[in-house]
Amino acid sequence: MKRKIRLGVGIGLLSLVLFAGCGNQEDVTGNAEEQQTEIRLGTTPGPYSELFLKGIKPILEEAGYTVTDIGFTGVLEADIALNDGEIDLNVDQHTAYLENFNENTDADLVGITPIPTVPAGLYPGRKDSLTAIEANDTIGIPNDPSNSARALLLLQKAGWIELDSEVAPIDATLRNITNNPYDLDIVEMDS
Prior knowledge:
The chain is an alpha/beta fold. Helix content is 30%, strand content 17%. The protein has two domains: 7-111, Periplasmic binding protein-like II (D-Maltodextrin-Binding Protein, domain 2, 3-Layer(aba) Sandwich), CATH 3.40.190; 130-189, D-Maltodextrin-Binding Protein, domain 2, CATH 3.40.190.10. The two termini are 38 Å apart. The model is unreliable at 1-25 (pLDDT under 50).
């Protein structure tokens, strides 16, 4: 009988935690279970999967594990597969995203180690500086709640919008914009 561990993970101390989760286990009868040596990793386009595949996967393979990379187009699909037991772990989300997924899907995914979040950025498209912003420009932001809030905070920091100060920063949505001096068309898109 193999014990399933459903985890959303970051990179940091993954090898130590993962080794503890995949070692020989004893079942309730005291019999040693067979060691799980295949790790089904759900990856999505982005820096976390890339870092894991280049930095952590070789360490795990040297230790005798087989890491099978199962690609997904987005974090939502990977989290659904993780929750359904189709993969063993993924590495492409931060705590706020994980908590939002659990709350909205009645899931029970657990992060095993915090990692630094890749900084959000403003990417200019056809502009060459922040000061080139013009009235009625279109701005694309991620459509998932936690990353949408991060993007809105970044737009506020740039001075392009103002958000309701009564709303917790992680809960900010388009409805919480109180001032949009450039009359920007802010469009939520898939990450």
